[in-house]
Fold these 2 entries.
Entry 1:
Amino acid sequence: MSEEKIRILKMLESGIVSADEAVKLIEALEKSNTATGASSKSTESSKGIGGFFDELEKIGQKITAQRPNTDTIHQSKDKLFEFMQTAMQRIKDVELPFIGKGTEFTHVFHETDVTPSRLKIETANGAVTIRTWEGPGVKAECRVKVYGASTEEEAHESFLKNSTFYAREDKLSFSVGLKLMKTDVTLYVPLTALDDISVKLFNGAFDMRDIDTEKLEVRAANGKIELKNGKIKTLEAETGNGPIRIVDCDGERAELNSFNGAIHIVGTFRFADLKSFNGNILYDTKSDLAEAVKAESMTGNIELYVPQELSVKGEIRTTAGRLQLPETGMANVTEKDERIQKSLKFESDNLSDGRQLVIDAETKTGSVTLRASSLHQTPPPANPDDSFGEGI
């Protein structure tokens, strides 16, 4: 989904859409929904949400790229929220509408003589959880619900026919492709560090903890992504609809994208690129090893917590929100308040050890806040809606 999302961000990067433009988008989407009709839902599911973004980009090409003036920002924001609700409903409608009572059962895949270093997981409907264990080999516990089967035997046969569990040498592949079933999977892997994890979900959440890996790539069309307590050298996580929460994770590079959802990261990545079209961003850097962070949001607030011992330099920008820096510790601050954008360029005065974190943060209708924090202090989410419960 990354290419489609990049296109939609480029479409809007010149500024927030106006009220009239948002209405045009909504009308075009509704017209498309009416034209396709109920019979096209299965076809739409097979295309995934990529078709939605392609359609949205086509509509957006007809929209002016001019920035709105500040007099219309708040009206535009209200209309944009209406547009976002319509867009997210469209994404949810891509899910296959399950009708009737399904047949439920459990199934366990287990390979005892393998210790894979590479994992590849793909599911159409259902959550994926990854945990470590001290047992032999790898095990996948599946909670399955099949729709349209007349007996449990038929449902079980359909599940086995449409699923793959392949574990050989250093690679594990697991997939469930049939959309007429929901499969919640808990995968147990050895305690050894992994080289590569690739996860693709159409409709479901992803949860992983206590696992170290060189690379983790997670793509979800509709579902939250949660990671806890891991060393992940390269992290790429993206969801179309849902929050991303990263807690006590460290690594070299993190790229997090949520089209409709908050991003909350507590940990340290040397380079972090955080984007949320419709959601708040909070990044609490837990060590002085961070070198660069870039945060972008269209409608959400951005909060960055930096250790007070770490030197910082950068720029924060907003169109309609507020900009806030720490009250002390800033030697050079340059402020601009133009008609279409406000900005603050800054540099702290503590350059003793030579380390410096470069910050680039921008939001259209939200606020940007930079705070100095203790290395042992974890701030709460700025908004109660950004708290994702006790699940992680």
Note: The CA atoms of residues 237 and 300 lie 19 Å apart.
Entry 2:
Amino acid sequence: MDGIDDNREQDVEVGTEIDSLMQETKVEKPVAPVTRSRVRLAWIVSLLCMVTATILLVVRDVVEFPTMLGKAHSVEFVQRLSTNETKRLAYFFYATDDGQACNALIAGKKLRQLGARASIDMVAMVSEDVSQATQNHLYKGGVIPMPVERWRRSTGNAFYKDALTKLRLFEERGYDRVVYIDSDTVIQRNLDVLFDLPHAIFWAPRAYWLDYLQPFITSVLLVVDPNNALFAHLEHAIAVEKEPQYDMDVLNNEWKHQCGILPSEFVVLSTHLQSDTDKFLFGYKDLDDRINHTYIHHFSPSNPYNKPWNMNPNDMVRDPNVHHMYYDLFEIYWNQRHLHCPWLD
């Protein structure tokens, strides 16, 4: 035992000498070896950092959503804007006469019926040709009349002479985003999803019937973040044009390669319920399937019928070889006009 005690005393003396030597030379004591638990903890932390970095990259890729949806018919938009209700949103229409104002009222009421959010305004840009009485009917019916200066052409097709007026939706009027819809349409599905799209100069559906001009968009439906600089650009483009252009032409000539393109089923011509039904299915299995996925039907010239307000309902004869929806659109319009615009009868 004495030998063991002597060894311990020697170890203590050696340790004391080492401590003294390290203090004199200012060398730190050796650090204890890293334990397995510390290694495991460090590995877990590194793994968590890698996972976090991967998630951030994925989120970045989602936020950088492309401005071109192309020709696909899938409408499951990945990226959505914040649902911050402080943003001012509105559905827009335009009217240069009492009949168009009635159509705007019909469209606004249909959107509410389809579940449009209460926080989204219904607005009709109205020119001086819309009577005060009709503007009062709009307001009572839940559509805000917004006076604008009519943008009329003195040359060109008389039918489209006031069509440039719709481009005033690019002017800043207190709204962060507007969804514009031509009023010579029948709306079939809720369109609130369009307010959640990422920013683009504007969004619009393909004018699929003009396949020889693609890419080419229709101005029947437009999603716009109003900007006075963009409106000034349009004004200049029209001022220096070499031949008369209308709203659809101007937008395509200026921005068709920069705008966001919506799938074709957002706007389908009524005539394609009557003809070329197999040609324009957009990947759906049959005509009924396409109809069920259509958001808006636009009244387009088709023999023997045209716009429903220019027709006598008693003159319509249903062809059993034509899909019933073609005729139903006319019936829907006439019923809604009688219900919501009795002052015009």
Note: Confidence is low (pLDDT under 50) at residues 1-32, 57-84.
